[in-house]
From TrEMBL:
<feature type="domain" description="TRAM">
    <location>
        <begin position="425"/>
        <end position="488"/>
    </location>
</feature>
<dbReference type="Pfam" id="PF04055">
    <property type="entry name" value="Radical_SAM"/>
</dbReference>
<dbReference type="Pfam" id="PF01938">
    <property type="entry name" value="TRAM"/>
</dbReference>
<feature type="binding site">
    <location>
        <position position="209"/>
    </location>
    <ligand>
        <name>[4Fe-4S] cluster 2</name>
    </ligand>
</feature>
<keyword id="KW-0408">Iron</keyword>
<dbReference type="Pfam" id="PF00919">
    <property type="entry name" value="UPF0004"/>
</dbReference>
<comment type="function">
    <text>Catalyzes the methylthiolation of N6-(dimethylallyl)adenosine (i(6)A), leading to the formation of 2-methylthio-N6-(dimethylallyl)adenosine (ms(2)i(6)A) at position 37 in tRNAs that read codons beginning with uridine.</text>
</comment>
<dbReference type="InterPro" id="IPR058240">
    <property type="entry name" value="rSAM_sf"/>
</dbReference>
<dbReference type="InterPro" id="IPR007197">
    <property type="entry name" value="rSAM"/>
</dbReference>
<feature type="domain" description="Radical SAM core">
    <location>
        <begin position="191"/>
        <end position="422"/>
    </location>
</feature>
<dbReference type="InterPro" id="IPR020612">
    <property type="entry name" value="Methylthiotransferase_CS"/>
</dbReference>
<keyword id="KW-0479">Metal-binding</keyword>
<feature type="binding site">
    <location>
        <position position="205"/>
    </location>
    <ligand>
        <name>[4Fe-4S] cluster 2</name>
    </ligand>
</feature>
<dbReference type="InterPro" id="IPR013848">
    <property type="entry name" value="Methylthiotransferase_N"/>
</dbReference>
<feature type="binding site">
    <location>
        <position position="59"/>
    </location>
    <ligand>
        <name>[4Fe-4S] cluster 1</name>
    </ligand>
</feature>
<feature type="binding site">
    <location>
        <position position="129"/>
    </location>
    <ligand>
        <name>[4Fe-4S] cluster 1</name>
    </ligand>
</feature>
<protein>
    <recommendedName>
        <fullName>tRNA-2-methylthio-N(6)-dimethylallyladenosine synthase</fullName>
        <ecNumber>2.8.4.3</ecNumber>
    </recommendedName>
</protein>
Length: 495
């Protein structure tokens, strides 16, 4: 579809509002890999002496998109600021996963009105997953005139052109392609930090869990070529990065759409990652349905593949899993869980859980509790189900009152706290390898980092350790973090 902006009257035809029927057809469309990112000549220096600020909501995918947009803006001469009042361009990179995520964003856009009045030249842009929703765009057009620019997740590479229209035009610029997405390989990126990096291995999602908006906001599943990924990770290793996290909404579906590579999956890619001289490789997010034996076997080889698996279960009840459209039962999840545990005995496991799915009974919720007890997760992101317009679950009648959902969430969180404390207690007096990421946010005299199993460790040591892998002896295992002592002598022995 040609890039175009549109006025308030005719924009609706440029959207693909959530529609299961239409979205399912998309799998047949071919994905194109393009290298056509350019900055128009007259935009190359437009940002000189000017500043930008990007606020990011949502998942790692959004965090990484922010790095790409920062890279684009920096190519136009803009510099980053963390002060709203100093910014000439403010982009709000939004998340649509739950209603409260959206409300936060609207509150914030509302608050920017005064700033815009004080500084009329300021450009305010809204992008990310909310921009893919027609209702959201309608609402912004109707109620938030302070916004100059709205663009979707498939339009990031068009930021220079869109910014130009916003700077020099009078109308609000809206460009949200309903196109399911190509892969653009030559985008600049300005990574936050020099120790850890995110690398997209695939985009979109074709799982269509019945509660979820992501398959509509991010388009169809499409994998990057392995050689592009390998080259990017090698380059990061060369630059001295210590940890790479491979990203996708359902990384276990990696490679399925690469028709010329027969049976090339995440297991093959991870095997390639093992050969790269970077100390730590992680991946997220795993969908249990596509987690195959080859991947389990490769993870068992260890090396730079970290022993932490984020394996969202969503519910412990097979009946609920079925209406969620997850494609596995409680038993299959548990089989997979134990299989991975056997292959990677020291692995830590985290998960995502939704409570209060429409018509969830007390017994079904108890099945979730018992699964959590059996798996003894190290941590979990737990959510109350939030209906998303256009998804199949949003049309289901729901007989569970909100106070019951809240009470279930509290019970689940209490159990998670107990399990987290138990799992951390096992680290007492152990010596662990920590990648030192920086100063602790709470106390600048303390350094902070993660173990291979993704536990937070705080300890005292010289700032020169930042960016290094060090040995730390755990002296105090708390519920959500570990305090320890830096083992300087062991370090010396190794060198
Ligand atoms: N692709 C990932 C998850 C992305 S969204 C996966 O499948 O695991 C992150 C988490 O948000 C999900 O795992 C789910 O637990 C939660 N979530 C998604 N949609 C939701 C909704 N409508 N209401 C509440 N939680 C939701
Ligand atoms: Fe959403 Fe399911 Fe896709 Fe995860 S796998 S992004 S929960 S549809
Ligand atoms: Fe949110 Fe979009 Fe990520 S909806 S969770 S930012 S893919």
């Amino acid at each position: 579809m040609a890039g175009q902006t549109f006025s308030k009257v005719d924009f609706s035809k440029y959207f693909q509002p959530p529609s299961l029927k239409d979205a399912r057809r998309r799998r047949r469309e071919a994905v194109q890999i393009i290298n056509d990112f350019t900055i128009p000549d007259d935009m190359e220096t437009v940002g000189r002496e000017k500043r930008y600020l990007i606020e990011t909501y949502g998942c790692q995918m959004n965090e990484h998109d922010t790095e790409v947009m920062a890279g684009i803006l920096e190519k136009m001469g803009y510099q980053e600021t963390d002060e709203l009042k100093d910014a000439d361009v403010i982009l709000i990179n939004t998340c649509a996963i739950r209603e409260n995520a959206e409300n936060k964003v609207f509150g914030h856009i509302g608050a920017l009105k005064t700033l815009k009045l004080e500084k009329p030249g300021l450009i305010i842009g809204v992008c990310g997953c909310m921009a893919q929703e027609e209702v959201v765009v309608n609402k912004i057009l109707a109620k938030y005139p302070q916004v100059d620019l709205i663009f979707g997740t498939h339009n990031i590479h068009r930021l220079p052109q869109l910014l130009k229209e916003a700077l020099f035009g009078k109308e609000m610029v809206v460009e949200v392609w309903s196109k399911e997405g190509d892969i653009i390989e030559n985008l600049p990126q300005s990574r936050r930090g020099h120790i850890q990096a995110w690398v997209n291995i695939m985009y979109g999602c074709d799982k269509f869990c019945t509660y979820c908006i992501v398959p509509y906001t991010r388009g169809k599943e499409r994998s990057r070529r392995p050689e592009e990924i390998i080259q990017e990770v090698r380059e990061l290793a060369r630059k001295g990065y210590k940890e790479v996290t491979l990203l996708g909404q359902n990384v276990n579906a990696y490679g399925k759409d690469l028709k010329d590579l027969k049976n090339y999956g995440l297991g093959n890619l991870m095997d390639e990652m093992r050969k790269i001289g970077i100390p730590r490789i992680r991946f997220t997010t795993s969908h249990p349905k596509d987690f195959d034996d080859h991947l389990v076997e490769v993870l068992g080889k260890g090396g730079n593949l970290c022993e932490h698996i984020h394996l969202p279960v969503q519910s412990g009840s097979s009946a609920i899993l079925k209406i969620m459209g997850r494609g596995y039962t409680r038993e299959r999840y548990l089989d997979l869980f134990h299989k991975i545990k056997r292959a990677v005995p020291n692995a830590s496991f985290t998960t995502d859980i939704i409570v209060g799915f429409p018509n969830e009974t007390e017994e079904q919720f108890e099945e979730t509790m018992s699964l959590v007890r059996e798996c003894q997760f190290d941590g979990a992101f737990t959510f109350i189900y939030s209906p998303r317009a256009g998804t199949p679950a949003a049309r289901m009648k729901d007989n569970v009152p909100m106070d019951v959902k809240k009470e279930r969430l509290q019970r689940l969180n209490k159990l998670m706290d107990e399990l987290a404390a138990q799992s951390n207690a096992k680290y007492q007096d152990q010596v662990v390898e920590v990648l030192v990421e920086g100063e602790s946010r709470k106390n600048h005299d303390v350094l902070s980092g993660h173990t291979r199993t993704n536990k937070v460790v705080n300890f005292r040591g010289p700032k020169s350790l930042i960016g290094q892998l060090v040995k730390v002896k755990i002296t105090d295992a708390k519920m959500w973090s570990l305090d320890g002592e830096w083992q300087a002598e062991t370090e010396a022995m190794h060198q």
